[in-house]
Write a structure and sequence with these properties.
The protein is an alpha/beta fold. It is built from 7 helices and 12 strands.
């Protein structure tokens, strides 16, 4: 089954180029010129590409709408403005990646592939501290009950698991979970960790003062 990528871009030429490049890589592409053209979010989408500056509602507004429906689906933001403000706001609102115009369509396709590969892995499930982590669906269960993790909380959980018993610095976590350079305070890692711990209290995550965190596994 081909992955489904939804694209919202008001510049027709750019929209057609991106759509063509993605389709050549085997993706099914749903292309829209505005947020209003999308309609209901009924069709399954594996990744969204959103232009920030759109006629009518903005890409930020669309991202908030998507996140209310699906906290984990990956989102890439594109913008004509290569400004730190757009980048920081986008990442803080829940975007997984950001690319500024002008950009190479090939670079965007590579980022799409990387995100899809990372978010939809082949191994089916992991059991950790009594929690079941389903990698295909990106869902976590506690004795059959769904644990409502955000996309970044889920990425943090997997990163800790893949590096279990190994100390991770806050910067390492920032680089992985936020993926690209983050210009805010690294204390966002502590906030994210606190939220994840509250939702998954049985996890044994050691705080290493002045350094970072380590996941301990019995």
């Amino acid at each position: 089954m081909s992955s489904i990528v939804a694209l919202i871009e008001d510049e027709k030429n750019l929209r057609d180029i991106i759509k063509s490049y993605l389709e050549k890589e085997g993706y099914k592409v749903l292309a829209y010129e505005s947020v209003e053209a999308v309609g209901d979010l009924n069709e399954e989408v594996h990744l969204w590409i959103l232009d920030i500056m759109l006629p009518g509602k903005s890409g930020f507004e669309m991202m908030e709408r998507i996140r209310k429906e699906d906290a984990k689906v990956p989102i890439i933001l594109i913008s004509a403005r290569d400004q730190d403000f757009d980048k920081i706001m986008g990442l803080e609102k829940g975007a997984d990646d950001y690319i500024a115009k002008p950009f190479s369509p090939k670079e965007l396709v590579l980022r799409v592939k990387k995100l899809l590969d990372r978010c939809y892995q082949k191994e089916e499930s992991i059991t950790l501290a009594g929690y079941t982590i389903e990698l295909k669906t990106r869902k976590v269960y506690d004795k059959g009950e769904l644990v409502d993790l955000s996309n970044r909380e889920y990425m943090l959980l997997l990163f800790l698991y893949k590096n279990k018993e190994h100390p991770l610095t806050r910067n390492e976590i920032l680089d992985h979970v936020w993926e690209r350079d983050y210009f805010g305070n690294d204390r966002v890692v502590d906030d994210l960790m606190r939220r994840m711990r509250k939702k998954m209290p049985r996890l044994q995550v050691e705080t290493i003062y002045g350094y970072g965190y380590r996941l301990e596994v019995d």
